[in-house]
Request: fold
Amino acid sequence: MKKQGFNPEPGVFPYTPDPPPGPGVEPGPERRGHPDRSEDPDRDPRHDRRVSGKSKSSLEAMKEVGSMPMPEIKSNIHCLTIIGQIEGHLVLPPQNKTTKYEHMIPQLVALEQAPEIEGILIVLNTVGGDVEAGLAIAEMISGMSKPTVSVVLGGGHSIGVPIAVGTQYSYIANTASMTIHPIRLNGLVIGVPQTYEYLDKMQDRVVRFTIEHSKITEGKFRELMFRTGDLARDIGTVLIGREAVEVGLIDEVGGIGDAVKKLNNLIEEQKKNRKEVPLQ
Reply:
């Protein structure tokens, strides 16, 4: 039987190694592969190049918030956000969006002392929360010596009302809402006269602060608070956008641009008044 011939190829069975070099012939240089590269001949060498691009912090910001970090700009205005539920002495469940008053108060003290901060913008989108914690934040904001402006976006309900009116000037978006209702307690309430007396005094604190820092009258505020029919199975009133301005609770309808412009005007006015005060 006649054998069929074949042409052997290096690396393919059957493999015939190259004959050793003869006398007087130097062996060729040995090929050394890159330690980080595989021996795959189809691999694109461009994959082994070092990639230069976005920094690690930029990639982390993209991963966490879904956008590239904003360039740091020196500003004389500090934005303070009050969102979710205002947390008081009790810690709320971790799935709740909260604003902790023990975080807000030190921030306000630091802003009052910071010489580079000339104005504070308060942005609210809150459902309310702890009454005493909310009043503490509102008192801190109203006692600031620097100009303050608030803007209600989304909602400024319940105890968020005193916080919104505690600034020197307040705005509300057209679609934002504010809920005015009496103080309510969760859980077991002991039905004794002292308990109702305490609730009445706490209610008076909220009413007094609100009417002192807005244009609404006490009679109108209490009428909105105890109005029936507006809220299902409850008493109170929901004010949307311009309605809050018409009753005198909020100063003006506007957004972020209006609030920043007003805050800059208040800052310039304060600087002008300081220059006009004679030195003693």
The mean pLDDT is 80.
